[in-house]
Design goal:
Strand order of the largest sheet: 13-14-11-10-15-16-18-17
Number of strands: 19
Structural class: mainly beta
Strand content: 15-25%
Shape: globular
Number of helices: 4
Oligomer: single chain
Helix content: under 10%
Length: 342
């Protein structure tokens, strides 16, 4: 993502989830659109930025010199407190629990209730799933910063397996911040590019790339979301893997799907369906063009583990270290350069 922790800028197009495979880059030729609309900062939630965004000189990964908005955030969603995430007891219902991807890979998220935790062995067809204590009916979850970090690794230790993973914003360092560099005017790319970090939501939090589902489930863990489709790790703060309506703008006059945020190439990302519940015809990046919005994207359904399919425009890629994965899973060491675009 185009984000920095403290003063260290990481590439905006870096693949955050090193365990999740990225979409193939340069999927298709891009055709020019009639208008290229930039970010409307007035649509962001009050408090979404820690500093007033400014315009700076920047260069895209494709070598185009342009200007970018420098947007700095705190890693927390403006206007609300995240959670709840993991249930505490096998008797807990949806009102005190979060959500998770359904096993069909499309449609809505499933409620992460105590009953759902009890049925994980049947749900995933693996009798080894036991995230609870059968004697006390208490669910095992990462209740400390150490366990939050320890469970969110590609090489999870035995003591952290069989856990529902959740982290708190209080675990972040005091001076934690994320910085996005996004072109002020979108630049159509000659060829579509891979999605590493998707972009930024209107509440100032990251729209993340795909989560490494197989690695998470392979460790018998559930990286719980709240009802808004997001969760917290020590490297990205609170971030989204799904959109469930929490960042939508008000209803549009023409009935178009509401805006949820902006991609790292500067194009708007709108909800999946319009006011009538209809979906539009989209290209391979999940985008299309109209006279009002120019080129723009439409997010996939909550359980598809993606927002958009590829990047239509050019984005900044400054190199540098990879942030952690969706649940704190660490990427390559500092100084590691992102893989070449292939």
């Amino acid at each position: 993502m185009n984000l920095i922790k403290h003063s260290q800028i990481a590439g905006i197009a870096i693949c955050i989830f090193t365990l999740a495979g990225c979409n193939k880059t340069e999927i298709a030729e891009v055709t020019s659109t009639t208008s290229e609309l930039g970010i409307d900062l007035s649509l962001f939630t009050k408090g979404a930025f820690t500093k007033t965004p400014k315009i700076v000189d920047c260069e895209t990964a494709q070598g185009t010199k342009t200007t970018c908005y420098e947007i700095i955030t705190s890693g927390a969603p403006a206007g609300r407190v995240p959670g709840p995430f993991c249930p505490r007891s096998t008797e807990d219902g949806a009102d005190v629990s979060g959500k998770w991807f359904n096993n069909e890979g499309k449609g809505d998220l499933v409620d992460l209730t105590g009953q759902f935790i009890l049925s994980l062995d049947e749900y995933y067809g693996d009798e080894k799933w036991v995230l609870y204590d059968a004697k006390t009916n208490k669910i095992r979850y990462t209740a400390t910063k150490a366990s939050c970090s320890g469970a969110a690794r590609p090489d999870v230790e035995e003591q952290y397996k069989q856990n529902c993973i959740e982290c708190e914003l209080s675990y972040l360092e005091d001076d934690f911040s994320l910085t996005y560099l996004i072109p002020t005017t979108p630049i159509p790319a000659k060829k579509t590019g891979r999605v590493r970090t998707v972009g930024i939501a209107l509440d100032g939090t990251e729209l993340s790339g795909p989560a490494p589902i197989q690695a998470i489930l392979g460790s018998y863990t559930i990286a719980a979301f709240d009802d808004c489709g997001g969760h917290i790790n020590l490297h990205q703060g609170y971030h989204y893997h799904s959109t469930t309506g929490c960042t939508d703008t008000v209803t549009t006059e023409d009935g178009h799907a509401p805006l949820i945020g902006y991609a790292v190439d500067g194009y708007g990302i709108y909800a999946m369906k319009d006011a009538q519940g209809n979906e539009e015809t989209l290209d391979e990046c999940r985008g299309n063009t109209d006279e009002t919005r120019g080129y723009h994207y439409h997010a996939a359904s909550p359980s598809e583990n993606l927002f958009i399919g590829c990047l239509h425009g050019e984005s900044v890629d400054a190199g540098g270290p990879h942030p952690g994965g969706p649940d704190g899973r660490k990427g390559p060491p500092p100084g590691h350069k992102p893989p070449p675009r292939d």
